[in-house]
Amino acid sequence: MKKAMKKLMAALLAVAMVCAMAIPAFAYDTEEDLNQLHGYSAFQIFKGVISKDNETLSNVGWGSSITKPDEFLAQLTADPTIGGEFKTNFTAQDVLAVISKWHNSDDYSIAFARVVCHYLYPDANANPKPVITDHTGGINIPESGYYLIVDTTYFNLRDFYHAYNSFFLLNVPQAPYVVLVNHKVVKPYVEKEVYDNQDGTNEAGFYSSADHAINEEFQFKLIATLPASRDNGRAYDYYDEYAVLFNDTLSKGITYDRLDSVVIESNGIPYDITGDSSKYTIDTTDLESHNYFVVGIPDVKTCVEDPRFNLNDGATITVTYTAHLNDKAAVNSTSGSTDNKNKVQLQYSNNPRNSAYWGFTPESEVRVYTYQLNNTKYRDEVNENNKLEGAGFRLYSDADCTNEVELYQDGKFYYPIKNATGKTAVEMKSAADGTFNVKGLDAGTYYLKETNPPTGYSACDKTKIVISATHDEHDVNLSGESNLNNEIINKASGITLPSTGGIGTTLFYVVGSGLMVAAIVLLVTKKRMENK
Fold first, then answer.
1. How far apart (Å, rounded) are the C-alpha atoms in residues 126 and 123?
2. pLDDT of 107-124, one tens digit each?
3. Which of 56, 298, 354, 440 has a CA positioned 20 to 30 A from the CA of residue 451?
4. Alpha-carbon dihedral of residues 349, 355, 356, 362, nearest 10 degrees?
5. Measured distance CA(271)–CA(304) in Å, rounded
6. pTM of the model
7. What domain range is 264 assigned to?
8. 162, 218: one domain
9. Please, are residues 95 and 45 in contact by the beta-carbon 8 Å criterion?
10. Dihedral of CA 82/87/92/95: which sign?
């Protein structure tokens, strides 16, 4: 049994990351350097005397951190993977005889690591006393044995996107011995995208921003990236369950409609689990009050029933859902930003010893733009006192004015009907102040046609409306050809009497002139008579 030290060391080294506070995953820009400003604690699991040639281990006993061997053995025997290998009356030497038969990172070694972890940290409030702590990027082990090395760094609550270094069970050949912790970890991340229709600048697809009409349905996509375990490791296996939650927040101008799909992809193979609601959850409790909902997968490791799937190979999880802009949406009639923001934050398992401990990624945000068309109807010139009420207009998407953009009225604004139900299309009418404004148009080219002029007025020519914009997750830039503020003038105002050919008018002019000449002659003749 004394010769079992090498096998024991191999088995216990297999529990690297046994109690990692964060799994490996991709960072946004750079990996987090854990050699700086991190503190560590060491817990002794086994103790013994190691020979000078480091080949044999004798006098094996429980380490100082195993304060209740009976409870530890009970947990070993209860484990579904390795429980049959142990008995509750085993000594430390007996345990050594069992685990020395295992191999690096096999199922048994990992199961043993989980038992050690749960024994030391039975609940969220557990605070086991370490043998030693250090803050130097390494730890000075005072006594030979096997230790659990724990990253015990304190992070500010606002600094939630951090990574704890991995924990290791290590053998110490001779004491004192400095264990150098020289590892970096990276973290999961999430991205949000929104579908944008094809326009003059972009092809249809998912981007960081989009523009849409109010009441037009479109999709959001949430993409979580869970990277492969580093160095062909089995980091995810140390978790009893590995959960992810998509915490999605909509602005007041965006309405959630329905979940479309949940797809997990690994090694280039997509697994669509949308049809199996037992694999994921949707919590819409806070949608109405806080515009907030959660899509969760309780255990990514087991939700794919394919022997080829292994989360240690890495995976992406894509959630797609449909939403629309509502009448509370912020609108643009000039370049600038918008309040139609939509963001997601990924919440993920970050501590295999405590499933209640979560990691949180930074938020990923997208924006959705929509535009307001402002129109004012005037009689014959632009004048504050010259506005015309009651002129009827309709909006079209083609120059022939055959494809109407149907609108409904709510208050002083007109809105696109699009995918809305229970709305009745109406003709726009200029109000007392001459205005008839359309709220919530998508980018594109439209034609405004006067279809019902007031009595005594002729319809004006159609007006071409261009909404051309480039945008991103920060703001929108309306091009110079865009015309979202229009003054519409009707020059055909007043009442014109009918004419029958022109001779009558000429006769009036001739007779009138003759009478005037005659009057003048009579007046001059009379004056002369009086003078005589």
1. 5
2. 898 888 888 888 988 887
3. 440
4. 0
5. 7
6. 0.81
7. 186-369
8. no
9. no
10. negative
